[in-house]
Predict the structure.
Amino acid sequence: MNTPLADRIRPGELSEVVGQKHLLSEGKALYNMIENGEIPNLIFYGPSGVGKTTVASIIAKRTKRALRKLNGTSASTSDIRDIVAEIDTFTAPNGILLYLDEIQYFNKRQQQSLLEYIENGKITLIASTTENPYFYVYSAILSRSTVFEFKSIESEDIIPAVKRGFDFLAKENNIEIEYSDEVLKKIAYGCGGDVRKALNSVENCYLATTAKDGKKIILPETAEELAQKSSMRYDRDGNEHYDIVSAYQKSMRGSDPDAALHYLARLLEAGDLPSACRRLMVCACEDVGLAYPQIIPIVKAAVDAAMMVGLPEARIPLADAVILVATSPKSNSGANAIDMAISDIKKGNIGPIPRTLQNKHFDGEDAEVKGQHYVYPHPYPNHWVKQQYLPDKIKNAVYYEFGDNKNEQAFKAYWDKIKGNK
């Protein structure tokens, strides 16, 4: 039983594939391509354990081409040369179907070495990747391939696969395996949409259960314990990380505390306390900002407390802060203002600093107007006096626009009155 259960019971027909109905339902483009046997160059993109390799294997069985497999993590340029050398030989008279798993680990030169043969049809490429192919796959390969996105599988759809796994083990080992619906659900719901993880949990449950009277009874407690150990799909350097932190901040920005807490929980369950704290702090400044400026030191204190106590207790101050950010009034006026100012700087809209603001207390002989003439505002009514602060080149620039929230409108009313604005 050295071969993993997921490989031993890998589906051989499209009808047996779990999930991916958006690709494999009758009438869908990929389904029709496979059924018609006309396979173009394909790139399968999506998280691990959702059927990419399985579908590629089914395609390989339906083609008359010689199947060759490479994995981007271990294959070298010499492996590619060996495959190319088979073209038009008696071992591959009809061409080669190359299944390249984890293509994102192939560098540009390795991918380029395939290009000529993909273009003339001598090699049909089916590549899979867990990363966004538009970032990691050479553009010339992309332009000659059709990309299909595989999605995480709903837990309910995984239950039949879990059941099939237990039934396969029972038949394979000539032993009765008893399991409840609760066991099936705990494994299916605990695998994070990854069928391979679910089947690994099935096999682990089998191995962790002692047979009595020729029967193995899988307990819900065993299923829960083993499923939990593989329940979180998360890679701090991969798409899943960026999707979660993006959803986390956007949920706070969108004033949805429940969604924000959900994504916070996913970050914490993955042990990614730094990302949870960083995005929370950014959101307090960027999305609440001047609508409730007191929130910044409050969230900073919560973040400091979370980093001090660590997990699991860190969840408590972070949950308080996330709820506060999500339910607070919102304003991005400060973020917009600094972005506009930076944009001007990048465009070269700078100009000399006005003489009145320079840190000089003397005039050179070449100065046409002697004296700095800076006006100190505090002796004036309301501690304000009109004078120019921006360089002459952009003296009329406006970066900050008061937000429409109560706090900023109060400040606007105050300064309109002081400055005599109408």
In short: The radius of gyration is 31 Å. The longest strand covers residues 123-129. The first helix runs from residue 5 to 8.
